[in-house]
Structures are given as C-alpha cells and as structure tokens.
Design a protein that fits this description.
The complex is a heterodimer of chains A (592) and B (312). Chain A is an alpha/beta fold. Helices cover 51% and strands 12% of the residues of chain A. Chain A contains 21 helices and 11 strands. In chain A, the strands form 2 sheets. In chain A, strands 7-8-9-4-10-11 form a 6-stranded mixed β-sheet, sandwiched between helices. In chain A, strands 1, 2, 3, 5 and 6 form a 5-stranded mixed β-sheet that branches. In chain A, helix 18 (503-520) links the parallel strand 8 (491-495) and strand 9 (523-528). With 312 residues, chain B is mainly alpha-helical. Chain B folds into 2 domains: 2-73, no CATH class; 91-311, Orthogonal Bundle (MetI-like fold), CATH 1.10.3720. Chain B is built from 12 helices and no strands. In chain B, helix 1 (2-27) packs antiparallel against helix 12 (278-306). The radius of gyration of chain B is 24 Å and the shape is globular. The N and C termini of chain B lie close together (6 Å). In chain B, 49% of the residues are buried. The model of chain B has no long low-confidence stretch (mean pLDDT 86). The chains are: A alpha/beta (592), B mainly alpha (312).
Chain lengths: 592, 312
C-alpha cells in the first residue's frame, strides 16, 4: 500500500488546452507582470552584454562599495569597484541560459524514458521507476557538490546534472499520461491500421502531453534558477563570469559595509523565479485544477424563509412533514437542474414509509435534504421540512447537529465507504454517544457492545476493535445500523440499505431494520428502488419519478391497485411480493 | 508487517550500497587528478604520481571501493586529505548540528503545515486564497535569499538575534535556541509553504468521502471531523510528503549552515568540495543516504499507523 510514495507527488495536470484559455490568461494581472519580467530577462540575456555601460570586470578603485544612484555606476559599485548594473546585465545570459539547459535536459531525458516506460511497460517501466526513486533519494545539492569535485566549476555541467535530477518529474508525468492514452480506442485503431509505434506516439501522445509539459517547464526553469544561484552563492559557481548568485555572495560578504549592494542580485533572482512560478500556476489554475476550491461552506443554499413553518406544522400531526420541497443544482450561471420538485411527504411516529423510485428519481436527494446534508452547491429553492415542531431548513449547523443522531439518524447505501477507514468500529461509536448521551468511556463501550450484539454480530468484543477493512459488507452495514440507532433517534432514514449487499444478507438486514423499528417505535424512511422490499416492511409508500412524487398511500392499497402507470411498471417487475434479486445495473444514483 | 519492514530495510541497504558505489566511482575516477588537486597546480609530476601511490589512488577503482567498503564495515571511513584526522571523528562532531537544524525545522514544519493546511481547507474564502498565495511565495523564494533577508532584518537592523555562529546546547540551552531561530526559520518557511498545500489538498480530498457525510449525519460537528477524521486520514499522503521534504531539507541545510556559519555537515561538505577533500565528501554522502533511508522507513511505519489497511 505504502510502497509507491512517488506516485503521490505527481501533479494533477489538465491535459487539454481549451479554447479561450489564452484570453482568460491575458486578463490576469499576475500573468502580465510575469510575462513582462520574463521577456525583459530574455531580452537582456541576448543583449545584456551589448547594453552594459561598462565591462563587467572593469574595476575603478574610487567606486569600491559605491552607493547606488550616486555615480556613473547606476546601482553602485561592488567591493572590487566594479559596476553592479553592468555585471547584472551580463550575468542574465548565464542565468537564463543555465535554466534553459536544465529544462531541455530534463524534458529530453525524463519525457523520453517516461514515454518508453508508459508505452512499452514492463522492463522500461520498472527501470525508470527505480532510477527516478534513486535520484529522488538524494539531496540534489550533495550530488552537485560531488560533481563539482570531479568536474570543477562549470555552469553548463552543473545545469546538465540539475536537468538529470529533475527528470523524474517529466518521467512520471509522461508515463502516467501515456499509460492513460495507450489504451484509448483511437490509439488501438491507429495500431490496427498499421501505423508505426513512432508515428502513433508522435501523433496521438504528444498532442495530449503538450500542455502539462509546458506548464512544468516554467516551474522547472524557476527551480533550476534557484539551484544555480545557490551553487554560485556557496562559492561553487564559475569564477570568471559574473553571475547573480556570485554577486550575491560577494555583496553578502560586504553586507555591513554596503548593505544596498545585495538588493540588486537578490531582486533579480527573486523576481525571475516568482515570474516563472506564478506564470506556471496561473496556467495550471486556468486549465482547471480539480483541487482549487476549498472551504467549509458545506451547507446547501436555502433560499426560502422558514418563518411560517412552525405555525403551519401544527395543522398536520405527522412527526416529519415535508412540504413543497425543491432541490436544484446549478448547471451554469443562469441555468439549473431541478432534481427534487415540490415534494410532499409525511411520516408519523412509529411508521415505516417507503420512498420508491428508480435511480435518479430524487429519493436520495430528498433524504439528504431532510438530514441537512446536501452538497454545498445544491439550492433548496422552495419548501419546508418540519420535524416534531422544529423547522429544519435554515437551521444553523450547530442546531442541526443537536438533532442529528438523537432525533434523526441515517443508514447509508454503501457500507464500506461509509465507515472511516482510519478508526476502529468502537472509535466510530464513541463520539456521538459520549457527546449526546453523556456516557463515560466505559459506559459507551458497554452500550456499543450490546448494540453490536443486538444487530446480530457474533463476537462483539472482537468486532469492536476491528478496522472497517476487516469487516464484510454485511457486517459493516450492521455496524452502521447499530451506530445509527445508538443515540435513540426518533426517525431513521435508510438510503437503499441493502442494495450493496449480497442477496442472502439483504433479507437479514431488512429484518433487523424492521425489528429495531418496532422495538423502539421509531419512524423509518426506507429509500429503495425495490417494490419487494416495500411490500415486505413498509406501512405507506411514496413513489417518486423525475423528482416528483407521483403516487402515495397505504402500501396494501398501492400494491393492489396502483393508479399511476409508473407504479404499475415498478410493481410488474416484482413477482408475488417476493423480494427481487439485487439489480444488475450499476448503482448510478445521482448524488450530484 | 515484519515482512514489509524487512523488505524496506533490505531495499534501503541496496540503496546505500548503490549510491556509495556510484559516488565513489565518480569522485575517485581519476587518481592522479586528485593527487594534483591536493598538491596544487605547480607540483612536480613525479611527486603527484608518488602521492597518488601513497593514497592508494592508482589501484583499480573496484579494488579501491572494496577497500573503502571493507573499512566502512569496521567503522573506518578513512582520513581527511587536508587535516589527516579520521573522517568519522569529523562527522561525529558535525552531525549533531545538522540534525538539530533539520530536526527542529521538521518539527516546526509539521506544526505549521498542519495548522495552515487545515485552516485553508476549513475556512475557505479569502483565508484560503491568502494562505495559498503565501504558499506560492514561500515555495518560490530560495532558502538563502530568505536567510539573507532574516540576517539583514533581525541581526543587522534590529540586532536582536545573532547573525552567525552556533552555541552547543550543553553550553547554554537558551543560546542554542537563539542561534538556531533564524536558520530554522529560513529553512522552514519554504517547507511549510509546500507542505501546507499538500495538507490542504489531502484534507479536501478526505472531506469528499462518503464517511464524512455519515459522520455528519450523526451530529459530529465539522470542527471535530476536520481535527479528528480528516487529519488522520490525510496524514498518509502528508507523511509521504514530509519524507520527501526531509531530503530537500538536508540539501537546504547545506546553504543555511554556510550562511549562518553553523559547524554542521553542510558547511563541512562545501569546504571539503573547495579543498577536494574526497574522503570527507564520501563520508558525508554515505551519512546522508543512511539518514534518508532511516527516515523513509520511519515514514512508512508512521503511515502504517495512520492507515490501518497498509499494516498487513
């Protein structure tokens, strides 16, 4: 599991440049500033030597440690009496050239080995991965120092080595992209139609990797520049030519005498590096980084004022009342898609309501709306939900948390992904019981063990200390049910609680839910697509289709005399009230 | 777990041998050149040859490596070319300084990266964008420029902290801390910047999981979910990053030690490079690889703690 840490460092990069990318980039001020800085640097790297007012090695003893803007030496003189401005200009070509060498070497080596590793796999892949891990195991600067010992001071040599050291970045990038493209149909088609491997790679793969490679180039140019300056600064640069890092070292040693001299090389380095990094980041963000949004704004937008709810709720005697509930998701600025449309529901204390419908009919969304767990982008644009006498929509997170667990609880569809993999069964029990019921650690353990026994888990003591991955799906679902009822909720919402389970386990879990519901006279909302399940345990049914309730009523009545054609259709797929087999369709429930 | 650990240790030993062999063949490739570097450019050719012979540099590379490696197994890393003291002795004197610098930096990074990463993920909005911008600046600013900035500000302008030098903790604990504040800060900011972004990303990934919604359905407050569940689940990728950061920190320490005149491995290796003191360079490389291997194994063990699935 933990044997491949390298893969985690791989940046997630978008692979296509969409239209309008450049237009959007051109609107960002950082992009403009970065581009101007980089073009200036590029310009001086070609013409710096011609434009420099003095020879970089010309010394004038009167100018030693001269202050800036006080003489012919525009930015002052260094401690040997040389013109700082001229030296900066001349050093630009060295710096930019060095970065260019490092970038080209790393692209050439990393991308070509990555291409082979991704395309041919096996030996190439293993070798490449091994080499790249080997390179990353060493601090680069130590390698560069060892190379310095052998090769002496040389910008070209050290930048070639930097290129090799950075190559793993491209190796992994290229390998991953190629592996994902290799199995695409159009590549297969190309291969079948007899195109050579080289043609295929250049035609199909390069189109895809072009964008991420360019983004990384700017980034790597920045890194190379820093490494180069570092080497020069610690005295391992070439002494003949002026370099930014070398100038920095020089002025650092004279820091107490002329504090300003250090400013110019430092600024040159930092501005150029920042320009590279910001440009790379801007392009990456514009192409859409999947991780760019954060924030706890995890509550859906509720736009209805809920003031009338309390008064109105008195007129119906149901425990849970849902009135005119609508949930929508924005598609673009002006459009949105309604997934729950004017839904009305009522559940009495001790009653089992079946919420039935096919995948995408809005049942799960309705359930999440009641629990206040809709994703943040959801818009609840009309309706009221009243539990007991408390209107739920618009409640603060804190007030909702007081209700969740002890008033309303939830059993999810997919047991394995709904237990936190990093905590034991016992630990997942603990929090709610200790906070809500005020139990001590020992008491909550006791209660958890008896609940585990109640949900028919054979060896509660042992399972209590299990991690989720040690449980079977059926056991995990029992554990989730036990946790859900641990704080004595009045209403349990079970969202397709048996769909993900083996057929043999399904009936047992349903029996368990029914048993718990009767013992505790809880209200239960059973969300399902299976009329067999409904007929088995529900008192009343609400049939949902395309976000609307099409029929609702007593189970017996609806099973015998379905009025809506959709209900008839659902019913006809179940024979004689026998629970259906688990459906073979993929579980494509819309969870937005 | 034991099998896993054994495999990691064997892989680590292989890495140590491979890296020392490659480095050795690189730095000892030309015996006469080394002898000339020691004796200076004006030395007599006969003297150079003789010196090379004395140091055993004329032997085939493979023989030299086996001699070096055999001695290593006896705890002998040879003697310095310049002061003729045992390399191991020099290393033993220097290592604590570097470990203190890097260890403290790692600790500071761990604390701040977690706080900033969590805050960024939890608060969102302008806090998030502000912290992310700090991340880019922190990442892009070279260690040594930051170090220079800190020296100028705190040591020269304000005069509240020492600019250079190292005080051993045995001599004065408070002096030790003072002498390390600026170096650790200079080294830590960049690491915090990138590690906190990793923490943020990992936390946001965890918060998208189904079990988070289920936890919320039980009335567990978001704050507790972030601090307990998101953090523990995010710690596996976070620890992996920290392992990689550690390698980078060892590299960064080289420059930082040079700027703040700390007598650690980093400043040693620079001086030795300028003097072509190859046995010292070899010893340092070996030491660093060993440290990297140990750290990676520790990280794997920590990941096993955080992620029960990987304990098998």
């Amino acid at each position: 599991m933990s044997g491949e840490p390298a893969a985690l460092g791989t940046p997630e990069l978008p692979t296509f440049i969409r239209q309008g990318t450049f237009r959007r980039l051109a609107k960002m001020p950082t992009v403009w500033i970065a581009t101007v800085i980089l073009f200036t640097a590029l310009f001086f790297s070609f013409f710096g030597a011609l434009l420099a007012p003095f020879d970089p090695n010309f010394t004038d003893l009167n100018m030693v440690n001269m202050a800036p803007f006080a003489s012919d030496f525009l930015l002052g003189g260094d401690r040997a009496g040389r013109d700082i401005f001229s030296r900066l200009l001349v050093a630009t070509s060295n710096t930019i050239g060095g970065a260019a060498i490092a970038v080209s070497i790393s692209v050439a080596i990393g991308a070509s080995i990555g291409l082979m590793a991704g395309y041919y796999g096996r030996v190439f892949d293993a070798l490449g991965a091994w080499l790249s891990n080997l390179i990353q195991a060493l601090p680069g600067i130590i390698v560069l120092i060892a190379v310095y010992v052998v090769a002496g001071p040389s910008t070209v040599t050290s930048m070639i080595v930097v290129g090799i050291l950075i190559a793993p970045v491209y190796f992994r990038l290229m390998r991953n992209v190629v592996i994902s493209v290799r199995n695409e149909l159009y590549v297969d088609a190309a291969r079948v139609s007899g195109l050579s491997d080289i043609r295929i790679m250049s035609r199909h793969i390069f189109v895809v990797v072009r964008a991420p490679i360019i983004i990384e180039m700017a980034y790597i140019a920045g890194i190379a520049l820093v490494i180069q300056a570092t080497l020069e600064f610690i005295g391992l640069g070439s002494p003949e030519n002026p370099t930014w890092g070398g100038m920095l070292q020089d002025s650092f040693n004279a820091l107490y005498i002329s504090p300003f001299a250090i400013l110019w090389p430092a600024l040159s380095i930092i501005l150029t590096v920042l320009a590279f990094v910001f440009l790379s980041n801007a392009v990456r963000d514009t192409l859409g980084d999947p991780r760019s949004s954060g924030g706890k704004a995890r509550k859906a937008i509720v736009s209805t004022p809920d003031s009338r709810a309390t008064a109105d709720a008195g007129s119906t005697h149901a425990f849970l009342t849902v009135r005119d509930l609508s949930v929508a998701y924005p598609l673009s600025k002006n459009e949105s898609r309604t997934v729950v449309n004017k839904v009305n529901l009522e559940v009495n204390r001790g009653e089992v309501l079946g919420l039935v419908g096919e995948s995408g009919s809005g049942k799960t969304q309705t359930a999440f709306a009641i629990l206040g767990l809709l994703p943040p982008e959801a818009i609840v644009d009309s309706g009221r939900i009243v539990l007991g006498s408390t209107p739920l929509l618009g409640l603060t997170e804190k007030k909702l948390n007081a209700l969740r667990g002890s008033e309303i609880a939830y059993v999810p569809q997919e047991p394995m992904s709904n237990l936190d993999p990093a905590f034991t069964v016992g630990q997942q029990f603990g929090y709610a019981m200790r906070k809500k019921l005020g139990l001590s650690k020992a008491q909550s353990r006791e209660r958890a063990l008896s609940l585990l026994a109640r949900v028919n888990i054979n060896d509660p003591e042992r399972v209590y200390d299990y991690y989720p991955h040690q449980l079977s799906g059926g056991m995990a679902q029992r554990v989730l049910i036990a946790i859900a009822v641990s704080c004595d909720p009045e209403l349990l919402i079970a969202d397709e609680p048996t769909t993900a389970l083996d057929v043999t386990v399904q009936a047992e879990v349903l029996d368990l839910l029914r048993g718990l519901q009767q013992e505790r006279s809880m209200a239960l909302i059973l969300v399902t697509h299976n009329f067999g399940v409904v007929a088995d345990i529900c008192d009343r049914v609400a049939v949902m289709k395309d976000g609307e309730i099409v029929e609702t009523g007593d189970t017996r009545k609806i099973v015998k005399h379905p009025e809506h054609p959709y209900t008839q259709l659902l019913l006809s797929s179940v024979l004689d009230n026998v629970p259906m087999r688990a459906p073979l369709e993929p579980q494509a429930e819309v969870r937005a | 777990m034991l099998v896993f650990l054994t495999r990691r240790i064997v892989a680590g030993l292989v890495l140590i041998v491979v890296v020392s062999a490659v480095t050795f063949s690189l730095v000892y490739s030309d015996g006469e050149r080394i002898a000339r570097l020691i004796l200076g450019p004006n030395a007599d050719q006969a003297a150079v040859v003789q010196r090379a012979q004395e140091l055993g540099l004329n032997e085939p590379l493979l023989v030299q490596f086996f001699v070096w490696f055999g001695n290593l197994l006896h705890g002998d890393l040879g003697r310095s070319f310049s002061n003729h003291r045992p390399v191991i002795e020099t290393l033993v004197n220097r290592v604590p300084v570097t470990l203190a610098l890097v260890g403290l930096t790692l600790l500071v990074t761990l604390i701040f990266a977690v706080i900033i990463g969590l805050l960024s993920a939890y608060k969102g909005g302008w806090v998030d964008s502000g912290l992310r911008t700090f991340g880019v600046f922190g990442f892009a600013t070279p260690h040594f420029l930051l170090a220079i900035g800190l020296v100028v500000l705190f040591a020269i302008t304000l005069g509240i902290l020492p600019a250079t030098g190292y005080i051993p903790p045995a001599k004065s604990p408070s002096g030790w801390i003072q002498s390390l504040i600026l170096p650790v800060t200079a080294l830590a900011i960049g690491t915090i910047a990138s590690a906190s972004q990793q923490v943020r990303g990992a936390v946001l990934d965890v918060m998208k999981q189904d079990y988070i919604r289920t936890l919320r359905s039980r009335g567990v407050p978001l704050r507790a979910i972030y601090l307990r569940h998101a953090l523990k689940n995010a710690s596996a990728p976070g620890l992996t990053t920290l392992g990689l950061q550690f390698v980078a920190l060892l590299g960064g320490a080289v420059v930082i030690e040079q700027i703040f005149a700390l007598p650690g491995i980093g400043s040693l290796v620079i001086v030795s490079a300028l003097k072509s003191d190859i046995p010292i360079i070899m010893g340092t490389v070996l030491f660093l690889v060993v440290v990297v291997v140990i750290v990676n194994i520790v990280v794997d063990l920590a990941i096993a703690w955080a992620n029960p699935k990987s304990r098998v």
